[in-house]
Design a protein that fits this description.
It is built from ten helices and 15 strands. The protein is an alpha/beta fold.
Length: 285
């Protein structure tokens, strides 16, 4: 009797453990059923993703999804789909994926070994590094000048972790999103705002008085951006990567880059030969 009870209990535990995975279809199956790919992105992170004056959700990563990822996913599921967007911030990105609220994070998320323990990343689609945004004339010119200074960052951002661990002499103050951090800087509550350089250039360009601000300092971190998705969903990752790969091979990716970061854009950020080589190396070019 005791032995039989042990067997029953073991079976119950096994069924209970397996139930979540059985109840949760892979992302492509979900998209095929609903006809919707839900992405987590930003409302205030120009030029990557933001809501413009016409209340339209636009940006570099929005275009990458619409032009490159969407057709690849449609091919994988055999039907047309639509894109739905939800706001995601550094603290909410991974929880949104884990809870199935979104299928893909398409924003400014750095691909790190630590994050790869929780999610999978696409091919790298952008490369930058952390710098500082300061008022013009600030004595802060780079990472060596932040001792004793009030430094703003976004919660759960990689640069916040670096400041906390490697530069504890700075007074780190974390904010829920980029607009809140910039507001603190504009109001004099902090001395500098640190983020990836390209995001700071975008923020400066969209500020009411862009000439009041400077982006300073060499990169003190490496920030390769990837699109994040639920871990182990290999078929969905293959579809996302295939879309980006096709964009690199056809040149469509570079057309989109030129639109948002070229010399005629609102946030010029030239693609250096080194970064272009880094991106193409991923696909064996």
């Amino acid at each position: 009797m005791t032995r039989m009870l042990a067997v029953v209990l073991a079976l119950a535990v096994a069924v209970g453990t397996a139930a979540p995975s059985l109840a949760q279809p892979d992302t492509l199956t979900k998209i095929k059923s609903t006809g919707v790919l839900t992405i987590g992105t930003r409302t205030g992170s120009p030029p990557f993703a933001y809501v413009n004056k016409n209340n339209e959700w636009v940006g570099f990563t929005i275009d990458l999804v619409n032009v490159l990822v969407k057709p690849s996913v449609e091919k994988a599921v055999g039907r047309s789909i639509k894109i739905e967007k939800k706001e995601s911030t550094p603290p909410t990105r991974i929880p949104l994926l884990s809870s199935n609220a979104v299928d893909l994070i398409a924003g400014t998320m750095t691909d790190t070994p630590e994050r790869r323990q929780s999610v999978d990343f696409s091919l790298t689609y952008f490369y930058t590094g952390a710098q500082f945004l300061v008022k013009k004339g600030s004595p802060i010119r780079g990472i060596k000048d932040i001792a004793g200074k009030r430094i703003a960052s976004q919660q759960a951002a990689t640069n916040a972790k670096i400041i906390r661990e490697k530069y504890p002499q700075a007074q780190l103050r974390e904010f829920p999103d980029q607009p809140a951090a910039f507001q603190a800087l504009a109001q004099g509550q902090v001395d500098a705002y640190t983020n990836d350089g390209i995001q700071l250039y975008g923020l400066k360009a969209k500020a009411p008085n862009p000439n009041d601000w400077e982006v300073v300092g060499d990169f003190y971190s490496e920030e390769p951006y990837g699109m994040a998705m639920r871990k182990g969903d290999t078929k969905f990752k293959a579809a996302v990567d295939a879309g980006l790969r096709q964009g690199f091979e056809s040149g469509k990716y570079f057309e989109i880059y030129e639109k948002w970061f070229g010399p005629k854009s609102e946030v010029p950020y030239p693609l250096t030969p080194q970064v272009k080589a880094y991106l193409l190396k991923q696909i064996g070019k």
